[in-house]
């Protein structure tokens, strides 16, 4: 007589189970608790360690429901469970299979299914099936982040007078799940944001060539009167500009670090800028240029404030958005203070003080 092992596997890596699984007929009878076999070798896990197990099986009565070696159509199945308890036994198996390096990522295994069932067929042989369904989650301070599921198992067939080595079957099911996850996390570690270990901000100044209606701030590109392209409205002021700031964000994961690229925009639309006829003096142009300079300063304040923040992988956009709103409010207040102090540029002494103040901060 012989046993036939067929891998019915949902993942390619389940084939590992077949590679390690020997033919195990005529093994000792399983009437007592199952003692899991030791692993073939320690899995070289360099990205994670198992920090906990959670039993989420809907039926926790037993791991295996088997038929007797001498089976007949009326034979009932009998239950066989793991020695030392379900969770404790699996912890022991994993402890022998994986290194425990707590400097790595802590992973929780949530066990949905781990079960062997045998069924008598009409031709007299017995079909057995191992079902495995594990969920691998990353343990975090805020809870758990789901990483990946492992679903699979294997089928076997035996004769009426044979009995399978259930310990080896279950052990190889556990073994295959750990190998699958280790391979998955090795491939995902560098580029999966869920597995990232830190956040890095990278800044640059947004530019656009050729220049269109929008001027993006550059010390080499001061305002000229030709930039004031809107028709002057009925206003008591001589000229007016409407500068503002914002940013573009791009995220990439490199070697387990979230690189957040922020391209800062201090900008001014030509089509919203205007000057009255006869007001095109160097003094008036300087006043309007200082409005643009203030926006550049605010963009730098925004950058420096972010560089002092401590970001987490789970929440980096939140603090960035909050700081942007704070900086935008600061910009509006500073512009109002500037116009208030200089009387919209009609107070030359105050204008001179603001020129010095702005130049000094820009020089930093």
What is this entry, summarized?
The protein is an alpha+beta fold and 364 residues long.
Characterise this structure.
The protein has helices at residues 15-20, 86-97, 166-188, 282-307, 317-342, 348-363; strands at 4-6, 48-55, 64-66, 78-80, 105-120, 126-140, 143-158, 198-205, 214-216, 239-240, 244-254, 257-269, 274-275. The chain is α+β, with helices and mostly antiparallel strands and 364 residues long. It folds into 2 domains: 4-192, Rossmann fold (3-Layer(aba) Sandwich), CATH 3.40.50; 196-363, no CATH class. The strands form 3 sheets. Strands 1, 2, 3, 4, 5, 6 and 7 form a 7-stranded mixed beta sheet that branches. Strands 8, 9, 11 and 12 form a 4-stranded mixed beta sheet that branches. β5 (105-120) and β6 (126-140) form a beta hairpin. α4 runs antiparallel to α5 (317-342) and α4 (282-307) runs parallel beside α6 (348-363).
């Amino acid at each position: 007589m012989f046993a036939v092992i067929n891998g019915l596997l949902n993942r390619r890596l389940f084939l590992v189970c077949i590679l390690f699984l020997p033919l195990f007929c005529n093994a000792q009878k399983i009437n007592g608790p199952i003692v899991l076999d030791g692993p073939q070798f320690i899995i070289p896990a360099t990205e994670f360690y198992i920090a906990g197990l959670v039993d989420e099986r809907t039926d926790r009565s037993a791991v295996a429901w088997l038929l007797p070696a001498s089976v007949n159509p009326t034979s009932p199945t009998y239950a066989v469970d793991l020695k030392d308890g379900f969770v404790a036994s699996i912890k022991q198996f994993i402890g022998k299979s994986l290194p425990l390096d707590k400097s790595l990522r802590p992973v929780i295994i949530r066990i949905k299914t781990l079960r062997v069932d045998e069924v008598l067929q009409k031709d007299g042989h017995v079909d057995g099936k191992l079902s495995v369904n594990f969920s691998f989650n990353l343990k975090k301070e805020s809870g758990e982040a789901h990483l990946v599921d492992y679903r699979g198992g294997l089928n076997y067939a035996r004769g009426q007078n044979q009995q399978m080595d259930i310990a080896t079957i279950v052990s190889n099911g556990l073994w295959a799940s750990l190998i699958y996850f280790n391979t998955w996390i090795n491939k995902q570690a560098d580029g999966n944001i869920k597995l990232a270990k830190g956040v890095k901000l990278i800044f640059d100044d947004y530019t656009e060539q050729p220049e269109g209606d929008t001027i993006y701030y550059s010390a080499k590109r001061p305002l000229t009167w030709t930039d004031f392209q809107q028709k002057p409205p009925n206003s008591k002021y001589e000229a007016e500009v409407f500068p503002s700031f914002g940013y573009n964000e791009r995220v990439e994961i490199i070697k387990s670090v979230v690189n957040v690229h922020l391209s800062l925009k201090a900008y001014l639309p030509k089509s919203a800028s205007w000057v009255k006829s006869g007001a095109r003096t160097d003094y008036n142009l300087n006043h309007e240029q200082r409005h643009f300079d203030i926006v550049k300063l605010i963009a730098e304040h925004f950058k420096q404030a972010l560089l002092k923040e401590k970001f987490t992988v789970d929440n980096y956009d939140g603090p960035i958005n909050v700081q942007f709103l704070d900086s935008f409010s600061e910009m509006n207040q500073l512009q109002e203070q500037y116009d208030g102090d200089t009387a919209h540029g009609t107070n030359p002494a105050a204008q001179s003080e603001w020129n010095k103040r702005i130049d000094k901060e820009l020089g930093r």
